[in-house]
């Protein structure tokens, strides 16, 4: 990707397709004059920053292309830090394309993915972590993921890292000064302050790192695998949960073979449901492969919904399996669903069947089949699912949740460097060696914020953006 900011770029910032409006953005030294050349309605060259102008985009033959509103932002008071002209034209397939073509014909060049945001970053409008939050915001697939990205964009996360970075930088400078005066045996950097700062750095990094799993959950969603014996009603339950006939349901055991995925937001969090093949020994090769996949999926699940048919009860093998997953050491959180409650007697009238599963304390009794027609019937299950993440979510401060794998690994390395520095300090190691560890920690923090960058990393980050962002 080019980072030269001598040229003027243009792209459609809004999604393609039928819509009332579309926005074509231009940014660069000539952005305003490029639009001015093909605009009839006002003299944009003289227009003040942050003003809007109604008029027409006119092509090279003098034909009107579309009626538009042009908004002018003059450097440095724009999102990119450059001159920006935003043309709001009519939406649809044609108008935005023709307006963009006209601007390109007047000297703008087509923007690359993320190039507007990259220019904003290079001009100091936002740091790298904030730029990444822009991409996350666009890709957010649940309300909470959206909230976290917005908070990151607002910068408190960056602020905390920056404060730490500046303090470390300050101390590092003082210690490096000592190296120049080794003969005189002076200590410019107060060891107590250093110790205190390293302690604080370690605890901030620990706090941040502790949120990384939550961040991953928010970004990627909670993986919920629906498992159980054939015919238990797993596919029916998936369909009820997602509110449409996603999976094939039939009275023939062994219907589902391939895994079937569908997503739903519950309490602002994305849940990815995976319906699997019913677990049983089978000589059918295809079904057997389905069962293998189901077992693997269950191992990798965040949450397992184990469905059984109340008419059948839980057999010995299932009981042993559930005892095993209930074991604390097991990572998979399990919700046991006793299905087809409509087909068994519930003598006490409280919806509890007579043959309650003695082996498992906590069974949710329901009728997946009835739930397809009555959304409220799944409320208890949805609540249980929400509970599986409620704890970690309530503990974490949204503005400080680490949602990015790249950040996580830099934070881990920074934490190690800080630990090395603390050990060195305890061992009374000389200042110059301590500085090496501090420099390493600074490097890691700088890589997150983008004060230290390399082309490849930038290219990778900004290529995730869409064109026009
Ligand atoms: N009466 C009643 N029937 C149900 C209920 N849930 C599922 N069924 C029926 O049970 C049969 C099996 O349902 P599926 O959802 O295909 O079961 P499955 O667990 O996905 O089965 P496999 O894909 O073969 O492993 C179908 O005939 C469903 O209509 C329920 O709550 N009540
Ligand atoms: Mg099925």
Automatic annotation (TrEMBL):
PROSITE patterns: G_TRME. GO terms for biological process: tRNA methylation; tRNA wobble uridine modification. GO terms for cellular component: cytosol. Residues 221-390 form the TrmE-type G domain. This is tRNA modification GTPase MnmE. Binds 1 potassium ion per subunit. It holds the Pfam family MnmE_helical. InterPro entries: G_TrmE (IPR031168), GTP-bd (IPR006073), GTP-bd_TrmE_N (IPR018948), GTPase_MnmE (IPR004520), MnmE_dom2 (IPR027368), MnmE_helical (IPR025867), P-loop_NTPase (IPR027417), Small_GTP-bd (IPR005225). Its cofactor is K(+). GTP binds at residues 231-236, 250-256, 275-278. Belongs to the TRAFAC class TrmE-Era-EngA-EngB-Septin-like GTPase superfamily. TrmE GTPase family. Coiled coil: none annotated. It comes from Longibacter salinarum. (6S)-5-formyl-5,6,7,8-tetrahydrofolate binds at residues 25, 86, 125, 469. Its main location: cytoplasm. Homodimer. Heterotetramer of two MnmE and two MnmG subunits. Its EC number is 3.6.-.-. It is found in: Cytoplasm. Exhibits a very high intrinsic GTPase hydrolysis rate. Involved in the addition of a carboxymethylaminomethyl (cmnm) group at the wobble position (U34) of certain tRNAs, forming tRNA-cmnm(5)s(2)U34. Keywords: Cytoplasm, GTP-binding, Hydrolase, Magnesium, Metal-binding, Nucleotide-binding, Potassium, tRNA processing. It comes from the Bacteria. GO terms for molecular function: GTP binding; GTPase activity; identical protein binding; metal ion binding. Mg(2+) binds at residues 235, 256.
């Amino acid at each position: 990707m080019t980072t030269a900011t001598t040229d003027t770029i243009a792209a459609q910032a809004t999604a393609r397709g039928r819509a009332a409006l579309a926005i074509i953005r231009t940014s660069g030294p000539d952005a305003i004059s490029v639009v001015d050349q093909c605009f009839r309605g006002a003299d944009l060259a003289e227009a003040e920053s942050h003003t809007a102008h109604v008029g027409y985009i006119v092509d090279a033959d003098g034909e009107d292309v579309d009626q538009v509103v042009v908004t002018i932002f003059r450097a440095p008071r724009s999102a990119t830090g450059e001159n920006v002209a935003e043309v709001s034209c009519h939406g649809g397939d044609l108008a935005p394309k023709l307006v963009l073509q006209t601007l390109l014909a007047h000297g703008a060049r087509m923007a690359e993915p993320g190039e507007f945001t990259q220019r904003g970053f290079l001009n100091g409008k936002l740091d790298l972590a904030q730029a990444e939050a822009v991409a996350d915001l666009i890709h957010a697939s649940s309300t909470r993921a959206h909230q976290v990205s917005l908070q990151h964009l607002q910068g408190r996360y960056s602020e905390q890292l920056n404060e730490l970075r500046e303090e470390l930088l300050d101390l590092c400078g003082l210690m490096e000064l000592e190296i120049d005066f080794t003969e005189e045996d002076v200590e410019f950097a107060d060891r107590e302050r250093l110790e205190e700062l390293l302690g604080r750095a370690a605890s901030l990094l620990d706090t941040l790192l502790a949120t990384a799993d939550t961040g991953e959950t928010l970004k990627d969603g909670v993986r919920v695998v629906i498992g159980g014996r054939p015919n238990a009603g797993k596919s029916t339950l998936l369909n009820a949960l997602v509110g449409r006939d996603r999976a094939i349901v039939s009275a023939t055991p062994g219907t589902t073979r391939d895994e079937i995925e569908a997503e739903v937001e519950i309490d602002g969090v994305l849940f990815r449901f995976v319906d699997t093949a019913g677990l049983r020994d089978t000589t059918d090769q295809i079904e057997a492969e389905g069962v293998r996949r189901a077992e693997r999926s269950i191992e990798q699940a965040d949450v397992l919904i184990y469905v059984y048919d109340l008419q059948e009860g839980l057999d010995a093998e299932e009981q042993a399996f559930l005892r095993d997953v209930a074991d604390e050491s097991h990572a998979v959180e399990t919700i046991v669903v006793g299905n087809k409650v409509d087909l068994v007697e519930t003598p006490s009238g409280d919806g509890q069947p007579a043959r309650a599963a003695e082996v498992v304390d906590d069974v949710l009794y329901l009728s997946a089949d009835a739930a397809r027609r009555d959304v409220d019937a799944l409320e208890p299950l949805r609540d249980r699912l929400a509970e599986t993440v409620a704890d970690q979510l309530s503990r974490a401060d949204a503005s400080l949740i680490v949602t990015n794998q790249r950040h996580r690994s830099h934070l881990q390395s920074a934490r190690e460097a800080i630990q090395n520095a603390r050990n060195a300090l305890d061992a009374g190691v000389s200042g110059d060696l301590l500085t090496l560890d501090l420099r390493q920690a600074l490097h890691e923090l700088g890589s997150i914020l983008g004060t230290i960058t390399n082309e490849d990393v930038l290219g990778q980050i900004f290529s995730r953006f869409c064109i026009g962002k």
